[in-house]
Structures are given as C-alpha cells and as structure tokens.
Write a structure and sequence with these properties.
Keywords: Membrane, Transmembrane, Transmembrane helix. It comes from Sanguibacter antarcticus. This is TadE-like protein. A three-stranded antiparallel beta sheet has the order 1-2-3, covered by helices on one side. It has one domain: 2-Layer Sandwich (Pantoate--beta-alanine Ligase, Chain: A,domain 2), CATH 3.30.1300. With about 130 residues, it is α+β, with helices and mostly antiparallel strands. Helix 1 packs antiparallel against helix 2.
Length: about 130
C-alpha cells in the first residue's frame, strides 16, 4: 500500500506542475485581451464625448455664437486635449472635434476619435414667408 500512495503523490505533483505551466502560458493572453477590451471601451467613451462636443458646438454656432465661442463650447464639452475647427459655408456651419484615445495602441500614438456635426444657421431660417 505504501508504494501505491507514493505513485498517487507523484501523479498529483506532476498535475500541479502541468496546471502551473498552462497558467503561465495562458495568463499573458488573458491580460492582453483585458487590455484590448479596456482600450476599446476608452475609445468608445472618447468617441461619445467628441460627438457630443461637435453637436454642441454646431448648435451654438447655428444659434448665432461666434466661431471662437462655438469652439470654446465644444472644447468645454469634450475636454482639454481636443482640437476643434469651425467652418462656415452659408447657410451651414460645420464643427469638427478630434481627440486622442488614452492608451491607444497600448500607449503609442495611433488611436484617435473624431466627429463632425453640421447645422443650418438659424439666421437662414425663413419665418412667416420672409427672411
């Protein structure tokens, strides 16, 4: 009986070693997938922020705000690390907002979010048949 017990102990030791080796191989892959999911989530959040900012800037410009004020509104909505451009072509105004994604491509420069929103200037709206 003593020999049988020793064989079971050796088999259990080998299994523990195999599990450790499998974990050592699988853990980096799991961490990589987790980081990728977090970067994609961050990109989605930044995309929503720049979309909201472009919309807010275009609405402000369409309501009669200056280009500088519309850009300020868009920047305040999206955050500090964004670039904002305002372009007018009567009767339209277009606001474009772009921002880098934190951790994009795991810290390198490569992932950015941008959005463009166009609105019709309220001054161009015909009221009661006259302009």
């Amino acid at each position: 009986m003593g020999g049988h017990r020793r064989e079971q102990d050796l088999a259990a030791d080998r299994e523990r070693g195999a599990v450790t080796a499998e974990l050592a191989v699988a853990l980096p892959a799991v961490v990589l997938v987790l980081v990728a999911v977090l970067v994609i989530a961050a990109a989605g959040i930044v995309q929503l922020r720049v979309t909201d900012a472009a919309r807010a800037g275009a609405r402000a410009a369409a309501a009669g705000e200056t280009d500088a004020r519309a850009a300020e509104i868009a920047q305040r909505t999206a955050g500090d690390a964004v670039s904002v451009s305002v372009h007018r072509a009567d009767p339209w105004v277009t606001v474009t907002v772009a921002a880098p994604v934190a951790g994009g491509w795991f810290g390198g420069r490569g992932l950015a979010a941008s959005a463009t929103s166009t609105a019709w200037l309220e001054s161009a709206v015909v009221v009661g048949g006259t302009q």
